[in-house]
C-alpha cells in the first residue's frame, strides 16, 4: 500500500496520518502487534527510518506501545489529538457543563481519599489564588487540578489534565470580561474545608455552588444570543452586532468570546 502524495506535508507526517487512519479503520485492534518496521516500510514504500520516526510519534501520542523484545502494540485506536480538537471546538457553556460533572465527582472522591500532602497543597493553592485575585485563571486552574489530584485516581487525573487545556482557555477568556462573575474565593475555601473534613456531599455542593454563577451567566448569554437571532436583528441585548452560537452561526461578538 503506497502512500498518497505527501505534498507540503513531511514524509514522516504522512506516514503518521496513514497509520492513524489504519488504526481508526480497525485494521489493528487494541493489543494487536502491528507489522514490523521492515514490513511497514515495504507496505508504505518509504524508508525504515521514516517508519521508525512515525511509530515514535504515535507511541508518544499514546496510540502505540513499544514492548522491548516483543514489538510494537496498539494501545488505543482513538486519536487523543482528535478528541482534544473536538473539545476545543466546543463553546464555553459546553465546557462549563462538562466541568461541573467532572469536578463534582472529583470533589466527592477527594473528600474520601485526601491525605495530608493533598490538604497542604490545596491550602497553598488557595492562598496563591487569594494573592493573585479573583480573576486569576492560572491560579484557579492550579487549585482545581489540586482537587482532582486528591482523588488519587490516575485515570481521572489524566482525563482532567487532558480536558484542562480547554478549561484554562475558557477561564482566561471569560475572566477578561467584566460582565462575567469573578472567582468566588470564599466558596473555594469552603470546598477545601469540606475535603479536609471528609464530607463528600458538602464538597460536591461547594463545587456546584462555585460554578453556579458562571454557568448561569453563560446560559443567560446563550439565551440572549438565541433571542437576537430569532428577532432577526443580528444584535445582542447590548446592541452589539453579530452572533455566534451553539448552532455554528458566524460573526463573533463579545459574548461569544467569553
List the helices and strands and how they pair.
Blueprint: H1 11-24, H2 37-44, H3 48-60, E1 64-67, E2 71-74, H4 80-89, H5 92-113, H6 116-132, H7 137-149, H8 154-175, H9 185-196, H10 200-230
Brief overview, please?
This protein has 258 residues and is mainly alpha-helical. Helix content is 63%, strand content 3%.
3D structure, described in words:
This protein is mainly alpha-helical and 258 residues long. The protein has helices at residues 11-24, 37-44, 48-60, 80-89, 92-113, 116-132, 137-149, 154-175, 185-196, 200-230; strands at residues 64-67, 71-74. Strands 1-2 form a two-stranded antiparallel ribbon. Strand 1 (64-67) and strand 2 (71-74) form a beta hairpin. Helix 6 (116-132) runs antiparallel to helix 7. The chain is elongated and about 60 Å long. Residues 233-258 have low confidence and may be disordered.
**Coarse morphology:** elongated
Structural class: mainly alpha
Q: Low-confidence stretches at least 5 residues in length (pLDDT < 50)?
A: 233-258
User: What is the share of helical residues?
Assistant: 55-70%
Total strands: the figure is 2
Q: Return the string of H and E elements.
A: HHHEEHHHHHHH
Count of helical stretches: 10
Keywords:
single chain; 258 residues; mainly alpha; two-stranded antiparallel sheet; 10 helices; 63% helix; 3% strand; disordered C terminus
